[in-house]
Design goal:
358 residues, 7-stranded mixed β-sheet, 6-stranded parallel β-sheet, 11 helices, 25% strand, globular
């Protein structure tokens, strides 16, 4: 990681406090949570009270310290991303905190353990239930706040870049939205595993930050044609892998960026999923196009990803080869402000909610 990465901490605008670990108190019958009164803009979010959930067999109940804010949260709030039928309707896909109760059955977790977790929903609340197999220990040296920022992004990036398109050392990757939580995770992981990274950003400050965290080539899409830039830098060869969360007209542009036998993984459609594409490029250059959505993946698959992260990625955090990037922390009561910031795209890194002061 270059010396420019020392600028990382200037985006931790809310200093990370030292944490005093404590055993959970008696579990209350009710809890605070962020409710969406109706589908709509961020202003529909407000605090409310509801019954505290109880873990079923194979699940744990987490007393939440921090929850991550992610793009799918905003889409769910707007009424366009309904949770799975068996998931909590409460918004929130990642948390960190203390195990407060363990459901029936064998579990490696015990009451009082500190964990971070991918959740099927329910993260914007004082207590959250999730499958025990979707929990991970805090990487050594990381705080609860930092650990809470990891699951959604790293589950997504690992599954798509390494499980689905098999990015390997010596290959080239183009990732869009380099300054987002997903983008910064992908840049760091790809560099840690020996890839050369191209990324697109929308401003000079974001470009500087992405270079500092490891990106080899940063393209300002507001000022440059990323297809032309990729062609120029690679001598018209193209890149081996594209990770795209934009969709829309980026889909055909991404295909034009791919090298012979290149692979593209699509994880979101910020600019729409219905497009006209000349698919002959796939046949002529033997391309692979795939995609996935994490929330709808089977629980067993998420458990497999959790095991892979624990074995392959958590040691990189402990060796300080990867680093969480926290942009701003809001209180649970200020979830609407957090969503407005997310939708502005002005942030660099993760937006977080402090659920219980630590």
């Amino acid at each position: 990681m270059s010396a420019e990465a020392s600028g990382l901490l200037r985006y931790n605008v809310c200093p990370i406090k030292s944490e005093v670990f404590r055993m959970p108190a008696a579990i209350p019958a009710t809890m605070r949570y962020v409710a969406a009164r109706e589908p709509g803009p961020p202003d529909v979010l407000s605090l409310d009270q509801t019954a505290t959930p109880a873990p079923k067999s194979g699940e744990v109940l987490i007393e939440v310290a921090y929850a991550g804010v992610n793009r799918p949260d905003c889409v769910q709030r707007a009424g366009l991303y309904p949770p799975p039928a068996d998931a909590s309707p409460i918004i929130g896909l990642e948390v960190a905190g203390t195990v407060a109760a363990v459901g029936d059955g064998k579990s490696e977790w015990a009451v009082g353990d500190k964990v971070c977790a991918l959740t099927p929903g329910g993260g914007y609340a004082e207590y959250c239930v999730t499958p025990a197999a979707h929990c991970l220990p805090l990487p050594q040296g990381l705080t609860l706040l930092e650990a809470a920022s990891l699951p959604e992004n790293y589950f997504t990036v690992w599954n798509n870049l390494f499980d689905r398109v098999h990015l390997s050392a010596g290959e080239t990757l183009l990732v869009h939205g380099g300054s987002s939580g997903i983008g910064l995770s992908a840049i760091q992981l790809a560099k840690a595993f020996g890839a050369t990274v191209f990324t697109t950003v929308g401003g000079a400050d974001k470009a500087l930050f992405c270079r500092g965290i490891g990106a080899d080539h940063v393209i300002n899409y507001r000022e440059q044609d990323f297809v032309a830039e990729v062609a120029a830098i690679t001598g018209k060869k193209g890149v081996d892998v594209v990770l795209d969360m934009v969709g829309g007209d980026y889909i055909e542009k991404n295909i034009k960026c791919l090298a012979l036998e290149g692979r593209m993984a699509i994880i979101a459609f910020l600019q729409g999923s219905k497009v006209t594409v000349d698919w002959r490029h796939i046949m002529m250059r033997r391309l692979t196009v795939t995609g996935s959505t994490l929330r709808a993946s089977p629980s067993k698959r998420k458990a497999e990803i959790a095991r892979s992260l624990r074995a392959n990625v958590w040691p990189l955090f402990e060796a300080k080869r990867l680093k969480p990037v926290i942009y701003r922390v809001f209180t649970l009561a200020d979830a609407a402000q957090a969503h407005r910031l997310m939708e502005s795209s002005a942030h660099i890194g993760k937006i977080m909610l402090e659920v219980r002061p630590h």
